[in-house]
Design brief:
By secondary structure, the chain is of the alpha/beta class. Helix content is about 65%, strand content about 10%. Helix 15 links the parallel strand 6 and strand 7. It is globular.
Length: about 800
């Protein structure tokens, strides 16, 4: 821990979970006396703990015992003291009537009669959907950055959200009679928004408190922290949905449809508008502002605008006073955060330290300026391989200083491709690089750029990070290498850089690097490694030389360099490291493909293996717990569980396919979730109203979405990005339409219990969570994407037609 005492985490945890309990009391889920008993016992335990530890400290001091564990006692004494102070303050609020009698405070009590119309309830459902999905996406963005996760973490967070929402729906089905649903909905939405804002702005502080920078966080701690921070937002969303469906018992499908339509609106606004204007911090306030306007409508008096105007004022103040920059600074201690913005590929943060600028994407460093050694090595080790190369392709990193090194080759024409438009704009704003006339800057996805290209290059330099995520792995697969090779001359050279295999690589890292090397060797005849600040992997169908001192001398390269020069480089050392790399990567290993991203999986396994066998045990237990509801529920809930499983599995596979093909998961996540929710709304509204649609047609369409995905995955290397997005959107819409239709069908075929819609909704969410986990944790790592799609297609198809 970086802080000796957990003031902010304890304060936030007790306050937020106390408010969540109060919300459940208002909903009639738990009684007021039970709520009070819980906090009375909490006060008793923290008081006893604080008192006993205080007495032990006193005994140690008075009698000079010199206990070695006194620091631990002191720390826990203070932590419990903080907790006791917060809980005692809560008790003071409970008894404020007693104190106000003596302090002459008078509470004002008003009673208002509220008529709950269908119009008001569906408006609440719409606002719930908008706020719920928007906050879900924003929390996913923030947690991905805070915990430096990849696409699998994103899908797991979605699964956690679904489980927590399911728990909320089950709890909400127990709401009592006589409650005011409009008031409770407003309270719940306000609580959800407040909780999300707090955790978005303070997630950096919480992370640094428990795990300072440089400390590797165990995966189970990551999951626990995410559950704790997402529960106050996800749990009430399910609870409010259950409450609203109970109010419109005979028209619960309207609540389902409008909640989905609100989700559609929120996701589309976030992905198509808000992300292009605001960063995550300001976007969260903007979403709250929109939701509050919906709740306030119709604007019968100015008082209804009080909360929206307050949020607007807060948002403007946060931007003017740079509170978003200050919140981001908590994630980068010791560095000055210059700017933070969201992009389609991830959250980009620019930090400054003296004259150096560092660019991060989702918490992972992309590049830094003023790194002369790296810039000289990556350019000159590659350029020296060919005499007077005339055409160079540079993918990313131009503003890191690589262009300055390429300018030393006067006659070279450079095509600089930067896939991320926001990164390019921020680099142009903060990095002062003078681009020569023979350098052309292109903002484009590299795969799409190469598909349209007819020219060939003598040199290709790829400077993207190594493949720890599906987005980064796109530049290391056999499909990409074959595409790139078509645009190299007969003796063209490709260069990438890896962090360095080291002297004693771990087994997963060795397997990852072996897979990369094997993939390069399957495409190019010659593959060599030149070690420096990083390991530079050079590939060509012609000769690759590693005697760099001799080569630089022959080419008259290096006189203007500080480090890459003949008198500075040791050819013998380079030869030894080259031999060691080949020795370490000579075993048989799987080729890295889009279908089976082996290096990404090995990097993930390497991370998990650092924490022992208990990680695998916990994961196995988690999978079993997710599957239990399928076997213990009744026929109808089991059918909905299976439908939810199929829907989330296909959505997850579509999203990951989009990431592999175009690297746009981060930017399109909100829109794709919105489309899924929109499909749910359309399907639920079509049930019973469009007579021509039969259940068998719906089952066929759900299976058809798997077939579309299978065909898309095979052909995605040849599909334009706009068409790719259109096909993914259509596939998700077809699948979600089927799920929405079947939700209504299954609910109506079950008993008439008023709690049935909420229970069916919970079964849907639990099945959805299981679908995400099974796909990402078991199927893709073991058999790859295409086989996963095929297996799901067969088993889900059989179950749908036999059991649903």
């Amino acid at each position: 821990m970086s802080s000796p005492y957990l003031l902010i985490p304890i304060l936030l945890a007790i306050t937020i979970y106390y408010l969540l309990g109060s919300l459940m009391v208002q909903a009639g889920i738990i009684s007021f006396s039970t709520h009070r008993k819980f906090w009375n016992f909490a006060l008793l335990f923290v008081f006893l703990g604080c008192a006993i530890l205080g007495i032990l400290l006193t005994i140690n001091i008075n009698y000079k015992l010199g206990w070695s564990f006194v620091k631990v006692i002191l720390q826990w004494h203070v932590q419990l003291g903080i907790a006791m102070s917060v809980v005692a303050f809560i008790h003071t609020l409970w008894h404020r009537g007693y104190f106000s009698k003596y302090l002459l405070f008078r509470g004002r009590q008003t009673k208002t009669a509220t008529v709950n119309t269908k119009q008001q309830l569906v408006k609440s459902a719409f606002a719930l959907g908008l706020l719920s999905v928007s906050l879900q996406v924003l929390l996913i963005r923030q947690f991905t950055k805070v915990f430096q996760g990849n696409e699998f973490l994103i899908t797991w967070i979605i699964g956690i959200w679904m489980l927590l929402s399911a728990a909320g729906a089950i709890a909400g089905s127990r709401t009592g009679n006589g409650i005011n649903p409009q008031k409770l909905t407003r309270m719940a939405l306000g609580f959800m928004f407040l909780s999300a804002i707090i955790f978005i702005f303070l997630s950096g502080e919480i992370r640094q408190t428990f795990f300072p920078s440089g400390v590797l966080i165990p995966p189970y701690h990551v999951m626990v922290m995410i559950v704790v921070m997402m529960t106050p937002t996800a749990f009430p969303s399910g609870m409010v949905y259950a409450l609203l469906t109970k109010q419109l018992k005979s028209e619960y499908s309207s609540i389902y449809a409008y909640e989905a339509l609100g989700s559609l609106a929120g996701g589309l606004l976030l992905s198509l508008v808000i992300i292009w204007i605001f960063n995550t911090y300001i976007a969260a306030i903007a979403v709250g502002f929109l939701a509050s306007l919906i709740i306030a409508y119709p604007l019968k008096n100015f008082a209804r605008l009080a909360f929206p105007l307050a949020l607007l004022t807060i948002g403007i103040s946060v931007k003017i006073l740079n509170f978003d920059i200050k919140a981001e600074s908590l994630l980068f201690p010791g560095q000055k955060v210059v700017s933070v913005t969201d992009s389609p590929h991830g959250s980009i943060t620019v930090t400054g330290s003296e004259d150096q600028l560092n660019f991060f994407e989702n918490g992972t460093m992309l590049f830094g300026t003023q790194n002369t050694i790296y810039c000289e090595e990556v350019v000159h080790y590659t350029m020296a391989q060919r005499y007077m190369p005339s055409k160079v392709l540079l993918v990313s990193g131009g503003y890191a200083g690589l262009i300055d090194e390429l300018k030393k080759y006067k006659l070279v024409k450079v095509d600089y491709v930067e896939p991320n438009p926001h990164l390019l704009r921020m680099s142009q704003n903060y990095c002062k690089v003078d681009f020569p006339d023979n350098t052309k800057i292109t903002n484009s996805d590299i795969r799409g750029f190469l598909r349209k290209l007819s020219e060939k290059y003598d040199i290709a330099i790829i400077t993207t990070p190594e493949p720890t995520s599906l987005e980064q792995n796109r530049f290391y697969t056999i499909e990409f290498l074959k595409l790139l090779k078509k645009h190299l001359t007969a003796d063209g050279v490709l260069s990438i850089s890896l962090s360095g295999i080291g002297n004693y690589p771990s087994a997963p890292k060795q397997k990852a690097y072996t897979s990369i090397a094997a993939t390069f060797k399957s495409v190019f005849r010659k593959v060599e490694v030149i070690s420096g600040e990083r390991d530079y992997l050079l590939a060509s169908d012609s000769t690759i030389r590693i005697d760099m001192a001799q080569l630089l001398s022959e080419q008259n390269i290096g006189e203007a360099n500080l480090y890459v020069r003949p008198d500075y480089i040791n050819d013998e050392h380079i030869a030894q490291r080259n031999h060691f790399f080949h020795e370490q990567t000579q075993s048989t290993q799987k080729i890295n493909t889009d279908n089976h991203p082996w290096p990404v999986l090995q990097n993930t396994l390497g991370y998990l293996s650092m924490f022992g066998d208990k990680v695998w045990l916990l994961m196995a237990v988690g999978v079993v717990l997710l599957l239990i509801p399928f076997f213990v529920t009744n026929y109808h809930l089991r059918a909905m569980y299976a439908v939810g499983f199929a829907g989330s599995a296909i959505q997850t596979l579509y999203l990951l396919t989009l990431q592999i093909a175009a690297g746009l998961l981060y930017g399109t996540l909100g829109a794709m979730i919105a489309l899924f929710m929109g499909g749910l709304a359309l399907g639920s509204m079509a049930n019973g109203k469009v007579i021509s649609i039969k259940p068998k047609h719906i089952k066929i369409s759900l299976i058809g979405s798997f077939i579309i995905l299978f065909a898309l995955f095979i052909t995605m290397m040849h599909v334009e990005i706009w068409l790719l997005i259109a096909i993914v959107s259509a596939g998700i819409l077809i699948a979600s339409f089927s799920v929405g239709y079947l939700y209504i069908s299954i609910t109506e075929n079950s008993n008439s219990n008023p709690n049935q819609p909420a229970k069916t909704y919970a079964a849907d969410l639990m099945g959805s969570a299981a679908g995400i986990v099974i796909v990402t944790l078991l199927l893709i790592p073991s058999i790859g994407f295409l086989s996963s799609i095929a297996v799901l297609l067969v088993f889900i198809g059989i179950y749908l037609f036999l059991k649903v």
